[in-house]
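Re: the 173-residue chain
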Amino acid sequence: MDEADSMEQKILVALRRIIRAVDQHSRALAQRFGLTGPQIVVLQELVRSGTLATGELAHRIHLAQGTVSEILERLEERGLVERRRSSEDKRRMDCSSTPAGAELLAQKPSLLQERFVSELERLSDWERSFLLSALQRVADMMHAEGVQAGALLTTGPATATAEQTVEFLTEKS
């Protein structure tokens, strides 16, 4: 193996390690708390903000409104959120966390991106700029221009249940 091949292999291994770390964290969240990363993000925003319209919630967490609606449906089935028609605009659905949702969130399921952002904040400006540039280049090399993504490190479909996430990630391993 020449030096170029060695560098290419190291890059591929580093990418695979990142993917595996995200997979393992997603599986652990689903198994320990019965929630997926996107479900936790929705619940966190509702606990932090109180009552929000579905569209505003979607905007705040950078997910499509349809995706957020599906996540809310799953959380509502579990009694973790409430949805009701707005008294001001009957076309709008208002959402809020239930006490059970706040209690589950108080167990502090830690999201991978929270730890990652904490580590990023410890870097100098030039290091963060370098990482951003390199990762944007990697995304371009993978032809990910049309892929929409929020600031959420998770794998699998955003609207999956915790059980589906565990199954998805177990099959991938």
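The longest strand covers residues 81-85.
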